[in-house]
Structures are given as structure tokens and as C-alpha cells.
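User: Quick sanity check before I run a bigger batch. Here is a single chain. Can you write out its predicted 3D structure?
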Amino acid sequence: MTSCGKVLAAGFNLHSQLKPGGAEILHHLTRIQTLHHVDFGKERVIACALWSATIINTGRLLIHRGISGTNPDQIHFDELIDTEGRPKRGVFFGDVSGVRGFLDDEAGDLYILQDGGNNDARFIKHAFPADAFISRAGQKIVGVAIAGNMQVCIALCNKNPGVFVFSNLDSLLQNPDPVESYPIHDLVKGLVASSTTFTTLGHQQARVETFGDPRYPALLGRTPSTQFPPSHPTVISALDGIKMAKIAAGTWLIAALSHEKDLYVWGHTLQQPVADDHSCFKGLLDTNGPEGTPEEVHLIDIADGQDIEDVAVGDDHLVVLTTAGELWGYGSNDCGQLGLGRDVKTTQGKWVKVYSPDPIEKIQGIAAGPLNTFVVVGCHARREQTRSETPLAAIPPIS
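Assistant: Done. Predicted structure follows.
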């Protein structure tokens, strides 16, 4: 069943990736799109949130804003619309240059975005060369992600699940063989990338495996060894036995949400300092275990132990949706990414309530770009028609 609603966003808007013609920074959560025909139970409204581009799924249109984006009210991307007139289900992927492509969930086909100029951006189904690894494997692609170091990882659906790493997107599209290939323990349900590592979520066993660059072992959530080197997909021992429902990643932080609605995070604390000259994730990650040794994975407590419904991670901030329907944030607000106003630069190592919907509203989803936060709100239709596109009331400054 389709419903109406709206998309709120805050943060970096220099490329008009949030609101065309808006300010360079949206310091408060501001309505950027009205929704009329969305099936919140099936469709991911914020289909893609990158450094310089955003794709919004309105239920009938795919709106592309930012670098390579065209007139946001006229984007249909017919090649990504199914026979019922709704956007295909799948995963968009990209890098700092913008949206690069789309993976069709059903067919496993890759579509590459080509910008012909004069508002003529379109997705073209990619045909791999006959000698390419993908063609020889004859298997459907079920996951794709691009890391901050530009490496690309894909996962294939076959009897012996595996992940395959290429040096960059052009290498995936043109070269016969991957740079690295590894078996994994389960079919891939989710695949995300940080600055230098990849994380997978298994479909049947719901376990989390990590692999990638050895220079940042904290992004692996585990201690590499000769038996389990950093480049080989390996189950995070601290999470083994805990069934996970979702994984999310930013540049320096990775999060896993369990079926029991507990949130676990791991990552690197030496990213660019903000405001008071400390890492914005330092308070989350600098805790020790029961014997005083540094923990590799951290169980997060929010609002006196509230259960977590959803999580989204940016470059230096993260937001969570609690089962009480509230949005909480942690980290940097230097570019307005948490919507806390221009005077608040960081949450100062504390969780802060970012948004509570009206009684007639419900948060249907959240997302994060590197310097943005998105909130998808389901609204009462009559009330929605009377509201203007204005920022929400500012959250009081942190004391």
C-alpha cells in the first residue's frame, strides 16, 4: 500500500545534492522532497547518499541531485523502471565523483551512469567482455561496493560463495580477472565499504565478515593473524553467534545492528579532528574490556538502553532510530550533518536527540551521506498539504 510523506535532510549542500538552489549548508533538518506514492515497507526512499550526489526514490520517479544530476523534477530513468511503473529494486553505488552505477537485485545486471550533457543522464546496462571473469563465472552479482581507496568489491551468488576485489570500477568493467578473490562462509545479504575495508553480512547465518587494507586493522573489528590475515574475509569473533539484521559503514566507522535490536560499532579514531581537537568517534571507540584491554567491537547504549530500529553512518557522524520512534545522533555537526544548528560543532562525546516526529507522523527510514543526514517521515495527507518547505525548529544547544 502506498503512502504520502516527506524527506528531511541536513548538512552539506554545496553541490545541491540535498536541495537545488539552497544554501551551501542546511543547518537544520529541512524538507527537501514531498512523497505521494511510496510503499515504505518495500521501497528505500534514500536510494543513494554520496559526497556530492543523492538519489531519492519517490515510488514512481528516481530523482538525481548533485554532481551529474539534472532537473530533479524530470528524472525518470526509464531503464530502471519495472513493468509496473515503479523503480527496480537494487543498489546504487558511487564515489566522490558522484553516482557511478546501479545493481539490479532481481537480474544481477550492472547499469553504469553515463552523462551525455544537456540533462541527458541515463543508466546503460553493462555488457561484460566474453573473456571477463563475470562472463566466465556465469553467476549473478548480488553485491557491489566501492571503498574510499577506490577498490571495488563484488559478491557472486553461487554454490561456493565468494567475494572478488578489483583495483577500481574501470578494472571491474574492462579487465578479465579480479585482483583478489576469496571464499566466504555464507551467501551475501549485505556488502558495505569503509575507507579501506569491506564488510559482508551473511544471508543464512547472519554473520559479519571483514577484510581489507592491513594498515587500518581497527576497521576490521578484529586482530589479524597469520591464520586470519586482514585481506581474507574473516568472521568477527566478538560478534560470532549474534545474528545481525543490518550493516552500515562510513569512512571510519562500521556498525552492525542485531535482530535483538542491539547496536555494535568498530572503527578508527584518527580521522580529521573537529572543533575541540579530538576525534568525533573517540568516546565511542576508546573503551576497554573487562581486563583493561582495548575492545575491538563496542556495544552501544543509547537513551538508557533503548532498542535500536535502524542505523546510518557518515564520515564523522552517525544516527540511530530507536524503537520509540526517536532519532539520536553522535559525532560532528561541523557541516550541519546532524541538524543541530550552526552554533553546535560536535555532540562532545554524547548522544543527542536530533528529531522526534509529531504524534501523527512516523519515521519510516533514515540514511546518511558522508556529511548529511536524511529522515523519511510518513505523514497524514491532509496535514502534509498545509505545510510549507521550511526548516524545523532548532534543537537547543548542547549544554
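The longest helix spans residues 169-174.

User: Great, the batch can go ahead then.
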